[in-house]
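REQUEST FORM: STRUCTURE PREDICTION
Request ID: SP-0412
Submitted by: Lab K.M.
Chain count: 1
Length (residues): 150
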Amino acid sequence: ALSMATAHGLDMVWADDMGVNSSGLDETGLRMKELAHKHPDMELFASVAFKYQEYEPYPGVAARNALDAGFIPTTSGVKTGEAPDLFKVEEMAESVDGELALASGLTPENVSFFLPYVSHGLVATGISLDGHRIDPAKLGALIRKVKTEW
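STATUS: Completed
RESULT:
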């Protein structure tokens, strides 16, 4: 994905498994860390304490490990479209000085709660009409909230 993104002039890649958790980096994580350092202009969003992953007992430590590897730690709720626990987000944000992405459950109605803790939002379900189309009204409402409250 990183090679393809670079070839097409993109500057961000997100992955469910970048090989990082509270125990550190596995073999995949070490390879991705090398790539992150070779491509410093590419933002790599690494899922930690993320839905469908093994339970993460120390989400703040996992987030710090991701950031130290050159990734943007990215978390979620327990399932698609469900916002994460605010206490988990607070803990993670504190561990990484607010350099944290949220990739699940952001909506125009709840984004205000998360703005103090996140630097990035990856949004789809919370502003969708269905599984394939974005709702322009919801997207507009989310953008307005972020612009006025951030």
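NOTES: The longest strand covers residues 43-47.
Reviewed by: T.R.
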